[in-house]
Amino acid sequence: MSSSLAFKSFTGLRSSTAETPKRYSQAHPISTLINPRQRLQTTASKTSPKLQNRNLRVAVIGGGPAGGSAAETLAKGGVETYLIERKLDNCKPCGGAIPLCMVGEFDLPLDIIDRRVTKMKMISPSNIAVDIGQTLKPHEYIGMVRREVLDSYLRERASKNGATVINGLFLKMDIPKGGDSAPYVLHYTEYDGTVGGTGVKKTVEVDAVIGADGANSRVAKSIGAGDYDYAIAFQERIKIPDEKMVYYENLAEMYVGDDVSPDFYGWVFPKCDHVAVGTGTVTHKGDIKKFQLATRNRAKDKILGGKIIRVEAHPIPEHPRPRRLLGRVALVGDAAGYVTKCSGEGIYFAAKSGRMCAEAIVEGSENGQRMVNESDLRKYLEKWDKTYWPTYKVLDILQKVFYRSNPAREAFVEMCADEYVQKMTFDSYLYKTVVPGNPLDDLKLAVNTIGSLVRANALRKEMDKLSV
């Protein structure tokens, strides 16, 4: 990443469709689901045809947080729902942090949350550690989950609400060539759970498709959604001695520096009986194992005697795809590119986008009674962009400013020691809003930030002198 402050143009959410966006009115937005057992109700008038002797059929491809949340919402809303997921025991190499608002908003049981993190350490390239979390209220925490537990729970809940969960590998999709009501034909290989089984080739006809199949989305390829830059996340799950696990009981660590990643950060996050140690990079993917070793070395005294019990790697999108919608096919989660810069967070945004897309389909179909069209699904994109574009923009700028060099990272860690910064950061993270600040405190923060960057630049000049 260049040390220059000249920013590249942000590939943002608002310009993420290849075609010129159309505007549609939404006089009757779907209400937020408060009672999980309550059926979604809509009253919008429709001009699309009413379905005869059947309900709307929708396939959700991918069974992660985006797919599970979408399938549950669709099934509750009267839509005939198919959820296709190849690896029902899949463990994604994900730090596993979820914000507090997700626990209540998605009615998650507390027993699937491994740890409630109330303390964080941000550790600079020179190993200066700043404690973060002093501003948290007694009831506030960051939840740490294992993806195999969370994803399985969301799929099972979708199934209990009427979705058909298929253990299958999505292969391709035949896009209808004419007619607003012609079905999409999905080709997939279904497995019966037998180890080494070859599976059976099958097809299913549906009226709409939600692509929730991750960074390497086949649904995205089917609609020509375009490519994006991506990071490689590498993570090791390490079982450490019980006496060392006490240190990480409610503590997470984040390491920044060129040694652990040239454009991201390394982490040590606590799980049920082990820690997840990982890192990621966009610019130097071939060196990911070297960065992972550096992350382990930075934390070595605290994880000494640990045994690696699992190694995971996975691509993570860096920005939204050029197209996220075509006809009656929409992308959500990682398939759409909804991972934030700077923090690399994706779980909440995946689940939220899956639910919002499904709500748009339920509303547009009047609880599965009518056919939907592209304008119905576009309401999801318009609502998503309006709600979350500021968050993505702010984090993109922060990454460009503070992850560009070790001196800038030192400035970033120094800035994190400020109590106001911590309050604003945690409030925004825990509740997923860009929190408006106090004007006077914002001015002080701006002055302190500039001061930190000036000191960091002075430090860099001194280091340059030593290297001559």
Automatic annotation (TrEMBL):
It comes from Erythroxylum novogranatense. This is Geranylgeranyl diphosphate reductase, chloroplastic. Gene3D superfamilies: FAD/NAD(P)-binding domain (3.50.50.60). It comes from the Eukaryota. Its EC number is 1.3.1.83. Keywords: Chlorophyll biosynthesis, NADP, Oxidoreductase, Photosynthesis. GO terms for cellular component: chloroplast thylakoid membrane. It catalyses: phytyl diphosphate + 3 NADP(+) = geranylgeranyl diphosphate + 3 NADPH + 3 H(+).
